[in-house]
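// run 5 | inverse folding | seed 20
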C-alpha cells in the first residue's frame, strides 16, 4: 500500500544500467480504467480534489464537458447512459458537489438508466471522527440507499476493481445509478506503472444476456393468443434495449395494437397504423390481455387498476390479464397480478416471443382494431382542427403544430421535453419517427432535466437537439445555456412562455403586492440569456415566426433560444395529472 507518492530511487553510484522504475498514480489509473472500458465522455464540474483529474482526462483524450451545476452534469450522464447503454459518468467534488449530483444519481436509478457518479471525498480519518475536514461528509453512507450500488476505493491498486464493479453494477440486470467514492488521498498515490496496468480490468460482457425460460415464453404466447382484445404497451426499457427491429416485427407480425409510453415513442413511428396512442382512454379499459414490454405499472399507468383501466372504483381491478416482459424478476405483481411474467433482457425475450409467432398467428379481430381506428380517426380529426387554429396570443397547440412539422422534417433530431402543459401537449401533438429520439421528465416527472439532457444528447449523438421547455422547467437548468454556447452545441431551445407554472394569470388572493407563487416576471426575455453567451436569441409571437426561427436554428446548427409567447391562460393546473393534486383528490373523495 502506498499512501504517499514514491519517487523512483536513484542512488548515487548505482550501476547506470538499472532503469528508473516507471510510475503511475491514482489520477492516471482512474483515467486508464475508464478508457479501457470504452468510456469517452465525462460530464462534471471541477474543484478540489478532482481539478487535476479533469485536466488530465482532457489531456488523455477523454471529452470532458464541464457544467455550471452538478445536477445538470448528472442528468446529462444519466441520459447518456440511456442513449448508449454505457454508464454515463458524472464527476464532482466532495460534499456539496456530491449532493448536487446525487439527485441525478437517484433519478438514474429510478428510471433504470446506467450511470456512475464519481465524487472526490475528504480524508476518511477526519470524516469518520467528524473532526471538520474541508467539505466533510460521509458520502458513501448517504449515497447507498439512493442508488443501486456504492463503492469506495482507498488504494491505487484497487482502482481497476472499483471501476469494473461500478460498471457491472450500473449496466447489468436492471440498469441504475452507482456511486464511486474516491478520496482525495487516492489520486496522488503512486505505484509501479506495469503493476498498475496489470491491475486494471476490461469488463467482459458487462450486461450479460438473460434468456427467458421457454415455459415462461410459452405461457405468455398462450395467453396472448387467446386474447380477444390484446394490447402491447412499450416502455422506455424497450427503447433502452435497442432491439428495435425485433420489437417492430413482434408488433407487426402479431397485428396487436400498441401504446408507446412517452420515451418509447418512435420505437415504431407514431404514425404507424397499429399505434393506439390517439385512442388511449379507449384501449386501456377495453383490452383483455395486456403485454407490457419494458414498462412498469407505476403511476404513469395508474398502477394497472382503477377507472383508467375500467375498474369500478379508483382502486379496483379492471379485469385485464397481464404479461410483463422485464429484466427484473421482482417487478411482476408489484401492483396487480401478472399472469405471465417473462423475465430476461428485452432483446432475448422479444426474439423468443417472435419465434412463437408464425403465419398461423390469429390476428386480432377487426371488431377490436376497427373500434380503435374509429376512436383514433375521430380524435385525430379533432386535434387537426385545434392545430389549424391560429389564435393570438399563440396557444400551446398552434405553437406545437410548428414543432410537429419541424420534427417530421428532421426525424433524426433529438427532442428534449419538460414542463407541465408544455410536456403534455408536446407528447400528444409531436409525432416521433425513430427510436430513442424523445427524452423527457421520466418516472419522477422531474423538472430540471432540460439542459443537461440537451447537452448530453448533442454530445453523444452529434444530432440536432430541439428542447421544448416550459418557462418554469427551463429555469431549473437555464444557466447551462452558457455551456451550450461554450461547446457550440446544435441545441435549439424553445420556451413555451406562459409566464408561470401551469399558467401565468394567477393573482395574489390578498391583493398584496407579492405575485402569486405560480407566476413569473411578465414577458420575461429569456432569449437574451442565449445572446449573453454568444448564441442566437429569438422572441416570437406567431407560428410563422416560430417556424422561421426553428428552421434557421436547424440550418445553422447554432445554439439558439426561441422565446415563444404563449397565452398565459392556456394551460391547466398540473397539466394532465391534475388528479394527483391533493386538493383535486380531496374534492373527488
Ligand atoms: P416507462 O416509464 O416508459 O413506462 P419504466 O421506466 O416504468 O418505463 O420501465 C422500464 C422497465 O424496463 C423497468 O422495469 C426495467 O427493469 C426494464 N428494463 C430496462 N432495461 C431492460 C432490458 N434491457 N431488458 C429488459 N427489461 C429492461
Ligand atoms: N420541482 C421538481 C424538481 N419537479 C417538479 N415536477 C416540480 C417541482 C413541480 N412542477 C411540476 O410538476 S411541473 C412544474 C413544476 C414546478 C412547472 C410547470 O410549469 P412550466 O410548464 O412553465 O414548466 P407549463 O407549460 O406552464 O405548464
Ligand atoms: Mg409555464
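// decoded
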Amino acid at each position: 500500500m502506498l499512501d504517499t507518492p514514491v519517487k523512483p530511487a536513484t542512488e548515487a553510484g548505482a550501476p547506470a544500467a538499472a532503469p528508473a522504475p516507471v510510475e503511475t498514480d491514482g489520477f492516471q489509473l482512474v483515467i486508464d480504467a475508464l478508457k479501457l472500458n470504452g468510456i469517452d465522455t465525462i460530464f462534471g464540474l471541477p474543484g478540489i480534489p478532482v481539478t487535476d483529474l479533469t485536466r488530465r482526462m482532457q489531456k488523455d483524450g477523454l471529452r470532458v464537458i464541464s457544467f455550471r451545476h452538478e445536477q445538470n452534469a448528472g442528468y446529462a450522464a444519466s441520459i447518456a447512459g440511456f442513449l448508449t447503454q454505457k454508464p454515463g459518468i458524472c464527476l464532482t467534488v466532495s460534499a456539496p458537489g456530491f449532493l448536487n449530483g446525487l439527485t441525478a444519481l437517484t433519478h438514474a436509478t429510478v428510471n433504470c438508466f446506467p450511470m456512475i457518479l464519481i465524487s472526490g471525498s475528504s480524508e476518511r480519518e477526519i470524516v469518520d471522527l467528524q473532526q471538520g475536514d474541508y467539505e466533510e461528509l460521509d458520502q458513501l453512507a448517504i449515497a447507498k440507499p439512493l442508488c443501486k450500488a456504492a463503492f469506495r476505493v482507498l488504494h491505487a491498486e484497487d482502482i481497476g476493481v472499483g471501476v469494473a464493479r461500478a460498471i457491472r453494477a450500473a449496466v447489468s440486470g436492471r440498469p441504475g445509478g452507482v456511486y464511486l467514492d474516491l478520496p482525495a488521498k487516492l489520486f496522488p498515490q503512486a505505484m509501479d506503472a506495469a503493476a498498475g496496468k496489470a491491475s486494471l480490468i476490461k469488463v467482459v460482457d458487462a450486461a450479460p444476456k438473460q434468456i427467458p425460460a421457454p415455459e415462461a415464453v410459452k405461457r405468455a404466447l398462450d395467453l396472448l393468443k387467446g386474447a380477444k382484445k390484446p394490447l402491447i404497451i412499450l416502455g422506455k426499457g424497450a427503447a433502452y434495449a435497442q432491439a428495435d427491429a425485433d420489437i417492430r416485427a413482434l408488433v407487426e407480425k402479431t397485428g396487436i395494437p400498441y401504446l408507446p409510453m412517452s420515451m418509447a415513442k418512435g420505437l415504431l413511428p407514431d404514425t404507424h397504423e397499429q399505434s393506439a396512442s390517439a385512442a388511449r382512454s379507449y384501449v386501456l379499459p377495453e383490452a383483455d390481455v395486456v403485454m407490457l414490454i419494458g414498462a412498469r405499472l407505476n403511476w404513469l399507468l395508474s398502477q394497472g387498476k382503477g377507472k383508467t383501466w375500467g375498474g369500478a372504483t379508483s382502486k379496483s381491478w379492471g379485469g385485464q390479464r397481464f404479461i410483463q416482459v422485464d429484466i427484473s424478476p421482482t417487478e411482476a405483481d408489484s401492483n396487480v397480478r401478472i399472469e405471465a411474467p417473462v423475465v430476461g433482457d428485452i432483446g432475448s425475450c422479444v426474439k423468443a416471443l417472435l419465434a412463437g409467432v408464425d403465419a398461423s398467428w390469429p390476428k386480432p379481430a377487426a371488431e377490436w382494431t376497427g373500434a380503435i381506428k374509429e376512436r383514433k380517426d375521430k380524435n385525430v380529426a379533432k386535434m387537426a382542427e385545434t392545430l389549424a387554429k391560429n389564435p393570438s396570443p399563440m396557444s400551446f397547440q398552434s405553437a406545437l403544430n410548428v414543432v410537429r412539422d419541424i420534427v417530421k422534417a428532421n426525424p433524426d433530431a433529438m427532442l428534449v421535453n419538460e414542463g407541465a402543459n408544455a410536456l403534455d401537449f408536446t407528447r400528444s401533438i409531436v409525432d416521433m419517427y425513430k427510436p430513442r429520439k424523445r427524452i423527457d421528465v421520466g418516472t419522477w416527472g422531474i423538472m430540471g432535466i432540460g439542459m443537461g439532457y440537451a447537452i448530453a444528447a448533442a454530445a453523444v449523438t452529434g444530432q440536432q437537439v430541439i428542447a421544448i421547455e416550459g418557462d418554469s422547467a427551463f429555469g431549473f437548468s437555464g444557466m447551462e445555456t452558457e455551456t451550450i454556447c461554450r461547446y457550440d452545441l446544435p441545441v435549439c431551445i424553445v420556451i413555451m412562455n406562459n409566464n408561470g407554472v401551469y399558467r401565468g394569470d394567477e393573482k395574489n388572493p390578498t391583493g398584496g403586492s407579492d405575485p402569486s407563487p405560480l407566476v413569473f416576471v411578465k414577458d420575461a426575455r429569456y432569449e437574451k440569456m442565449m445572446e449573453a453567451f454568444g448564441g442566437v436569441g429569438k422572441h416570437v409571437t406567431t407560428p410563422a415566426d416560430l417556424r422561421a426561427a426553428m428552421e434557421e436554428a436547424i440550418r445553422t446548427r447554432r445554439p439558439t433560444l426561441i422565446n415563444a409567447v404563449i397565452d398565459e391562460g392556456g394551460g391547466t393546473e398540473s397539466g394532465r395529472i391534475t388528479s394527483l393534486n391533493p386538493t383535486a383528490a380531496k374534492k373527488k373523495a
